[in-house]
Design a protein that fits this description.
- The chain is α/β, with parallel strands linked by helices.
- The protein contains 20 helices and 16 strands.
- It has helices at 20-38, 54-63, 67-84, 98-113, 136-139, 164-177, 185-196, 226-231, 233-236, 246-253, 268-282, 313-320, 322-332, 343-373, 385-406, 410-431, 433-438, 442-463, 470-477, 513-523; strands at residues 4-8, 42-49, 91-94, 117-127, 132-134, 153-162, 182-183, 203-204, 206-207, 215-216, 219-224, 257-264, 289-293, 296-298, 301-302, 339-341.
- The strands form 4 sheets. Strands 3-2-1-12-13-7 form a 6-stranded parallel beta sheet, sandwiched between helices. Strands 5-4-6-8 form a 4-stranded antiparallel beta sheet.
- It is elongated and about 90 Å long.
Amino acid sequence: MKNKFYITTPIYYPSAEAHIGHAYCTVMADILARYKRLRGIETFFLTGTDEHGEKIQKKALEKGVTPQQYVDEIAAKFQDLWKKLRISNDDFIRTTEERHTVVVQDIFSKLYANEDIYLGKYEGWYCTPCESFWTDTQVGEEHLCPDCHREVHRASEESYFFKTQKYLPDLLKYMDEHPKFILPINRKNEMMNTFIKPGLGDLCVSRTSFDWGIQIKENPKHVIYVWMDALTNYITALGYGSNDTSKFQKFWADENTEIVHIVGADISRFHVIYWPMFLKGLGLRLPDRVFVHGLLDLNGEKMSKSRGNVVSPLPLIDRYGVDSVRWFLAKEFSFGSDGRFTPELFAERCNVDLANNFGNLINRTTAMIIKYFNGVIPQLTKLNEKDLAIKELTEKTINSYEIYMDDLKVNEGLTVVTELLNAANKYIEETQPWVLSKEGKVDELANVMAILVNTIVVSTKLLSPVLVETKEKVFAQFGIKKELQGYEVNHQFCPFNGLTVNKGNPLFPRLDVATETDFINSISK
């Protein structure tokens, strides 16, 4: 494991307010950042907004404001949402900030001077909402954008182009030598078969048909096209090309830093094909991994701001709490695969994992310690076979969790913890504490209570990158002192004897699926 970690989300396009799809990507990146910090790894977590382009300029004009006023308002809403979702980003980069724009100009000039960029003319089909050019084959006879399926129009203009063929051999070599550079692996096959093998054309990196963008110093009638502007945020936010490059040296230039980009499937080709080429042109190292998460649909239909069928996370947070929303996003979908958001799934996931499993275990354990030991966690005594089985499973769970999380397999990491919680609930049924109490088997009863508390506390720590508010509530309920709250304490077995538990309120009340389905449907648009 490398001793530093740099993780990024894509910078989001503020053409409309954030929805549950944006929240999904950002929460997953946040979970990984929090996990690394939990393990003592120095971590830098970046997110932000991509604020230039023709679509922004048109939206601002329709609203009767300047493009800057338009993006200021929506960028602020993104930042407010991240605060409510308890996103722990270390920085929020906006591509309209001077720290970004001046460096992007210098990056373009450097690549142009190196003859990586040349002036030519672009002719093709252009989709304004996606800000993408397409070929005749890609748009088909109906002339529809392959991404959003809306009409494209013919465009012809003078443009600068980046020479992709110059760096393609280096990219292919890097992909072969680093099999985990693109994850999941099927995304690499998709890039090869869809974009590289058919013949990779040079990339258009400037526009003249609008002016809301970063001007090219050598030719000010051109603005730098979205992807050269947007992708370089990952290094401009660290201070690349500025007077203070200390963060860049620590979190990018240093080979002991693991660099991970989390991106959506719809923008994966820009991150795994063109971004590495830009970096090669600048003489910089490439990211360790680009993880492509799947896209969410709403009741079977692709979720999209432009289609207007999105769910805002805000009313979900207000009604169910931030931890329930974060848990659903992290646990319901296999990270890397497409997922479906339905109201029924949301309510059922919260009930099964949080109310019935985790919450029920906490409630039962608290009640039994109060009833049988006057609220004081008892001392562990000699372990029997059932006790040893839970001890062994706890150690195995910690190990498996770390392996999965280090490999970005968040869903699998959370699953092994829920399996431990399931085992603890089953352990109660097998040991029957109420019978042990009636028969006066105090030592066996003490073991059960101590082991249940240990399971709850260990699981709480492992789940804390997701359940960010639950941890403090559980620690308070079981009187866990500060010196026992660290991650390393997981490797001690049952060190919590003598602490006093408090009853507390149920952490995850059961949801009525029909009622909550009606509510979530009412806020979907």
